[in-house]
Amino acid sequence: MKEIPIGIDLGTTFSVIAYLDAYGRPQTIRSAEGEISTPSVVMFEPGPGGVISANPVVGRAAVGAAAMFPEHVAEMMKRDMGRDTYHRPVAGRNWRPELLQSFVLAKLKHDAQLAEMPFRRAVITVPAYFNNSRRECTIEAAALADIEPLAIINEPTAAALVYGTQHGFVDDGRVAGVERILVYDLGGGTFDVTLMEIEGREFRVIGTDGDVELGGRDWDVAIANRIAEEFMAQFRGRDPRLDGRGFQKLMAEAENAKRMLSNLEQTVINLEIGGDMLRMPLSRTDFEGLTIDLLERTVFTSDKVVRDAGLNWGDLTRILLVGGSTKMPAIARRLEEESGIAASKVLAADEAVAHGAAIYAGLLLGAKGIREIIISAPQLEGVSVKDICSHSLGMLVKDRKTRELRDSVIIEKGSRLPAQGERYYETTVANQRGIKIRLTEAHQPIFENVIPLPELSPPLPERSPVRVEFTFDNNGCLEIVVELLRRMQGIQLSASQVIHQQRIRFVRGELKS
């Protein structure tokens, strides 16, 4: 049976699934409701006696129920990935965010089966600035939905891949000269900016940064707060944000106003709560004034990525807009002011990431010898993708002279993936019984654990060498090897005798052998 290359954009507000057709062209698989995207919203139906349905409603129907049963609805789960639980109880329970995400993935898989596109494996995208824990949680969510990830690929990289191979400047799979593309990816809940070089058939990431707590939803919140202020002014200080159902109505009106103002200079907001009816005009100019701080945060990050790569805006050849929130006119206008380059809107903002993931799935399956699915796709022949580590990784260690903790970076931010690094340390006392591992990411402590050591004969003296190796794979997931060494006279430290080794993987904030 032929394997279909499948790509999934598991989004914060909307998710999209795509496949690669027989000619190497990405195509969106429509949902059972006939839409190109599925809202990343999950609702647990209340049953008789308060019993919660074991099969949650996902997508458009869940959005429709949010105003009636807000306490039974989960949304924006992607922002909670890597945490122990979703940020609030849903239907009276605390939920792991990856479990909630798995319901969305299961819905996408079901819709693909209805479209006669059954699959077991898929490439799944994540924000470029997702850390190790969030990536591991995405892999776990896929497993819970009975999907095997072919790979985890960064969203801006996926968008650049579809742009480069499908939209004109790649000639028979090659680029004339070197293209330097800034991918500005503003989705519903996350923001990424990635700088890429495309030369020949090679796609190289040379810089990335972002904010997993910034997205189009924050523009909605800015409008909602303005509406709430007006509502309180007109109706005896009543705050619609404090009522569950009222809040859902408020956010729906705010999102609708944002979408309207992407096409119109002015709109009118109508909000009815408990018999009180607010009618409030809002202009695009006022909206842009309310959200200028959010936009400037993205421009600052974009400028930093360019400068950190040792480049100026004039060194870039293109700016590519990705993500549904880039439909706001202020985005393209402000980026052109900053860079002097007109931002490209050639891609379908909502579908590009899933399409790029499907292309990457085709490349991976082709590399594995599963080539019969692609009949004629010269634009994909020999294409390679090289990504980088979005965060530095290291350990907190005690300085022998000052006795203070310092961050010892083992893999630098920007290292080409897969990345590997090692450092040698020393034990602090004779016959030490354990090694404290304090992991750091982007110079911030993220986890602490003790690895027990065996009793050895003869006991190891103080300052015995310890080798720590980090391996960061192409999915951006971390594996650690810790080796306790016996120092041998007359040979290099790296050739000392290994007397104990432990190989561990960092998963959901835990070290697992």
Low-confidence stretches: 369-375
Tell me how many strands there are. Answer: 28
Task: Output the radius of gyration.
Answer: 25 Å
Distance between the termini: 36 Å
The CATH architecture of the largest domain comes to 2-Layer Sandwich
CATH superfamily of the largest domain: ATPase, nucleotide binding domain
CATH fold name of the largest domain: Nucleotidyltransferase, domain 5
The 3D shape can be described as: globular
H/I helix tally:
10
Helix vs. strand class: alpha+beta
Q: Which helices and strands appear, and what pairs or packs with what?
A:
Elements (H helix, E strand, L loop, with lengths): L5 E4 L4 E7 L5 E3 L9 E2 L1 E3 L13 E2 L1 H6 L7 E3 L21 H18 L6 E6 L5 H13 L3 E7 H12 L3 E2 L2 E2 L2 E9 L4 E9 L2 E10 L4 H19 L9 H18 L4 E8 L2 E8 H7 L1 H17 L9 E5 L6 H11 L3 E2 L7 H16 L16 E3 L6 E6 L6 E7 L7 E8 L7 E8 L2 E9 L12 E8 L5 E9 L10 E11 L2 E3 L1
Parallel strand pairs: 1-8, 8-9, 12-17, 14-19, 17-18
Antiparallel strand pairs: 1-2, 2-3, 2-4, 5-6, 5-7, 10-11, 12-13, 13-14, 15-16, 20-21, 20-23, 22-25, 23-24, 25-26, 26-27, 27-28
Helix pairs in contact: 2-3, 4-10, 5-6
Overview features:
single chain; 513 residues; alpha+beta; Nucleotidyltransferase, domain 5; Actin, Chain A, domain 4; Substrate Binding Domain Of DNAk, Chain A, domain 1; 3 domains; six-stranded mixed β-sheet; 28 strands
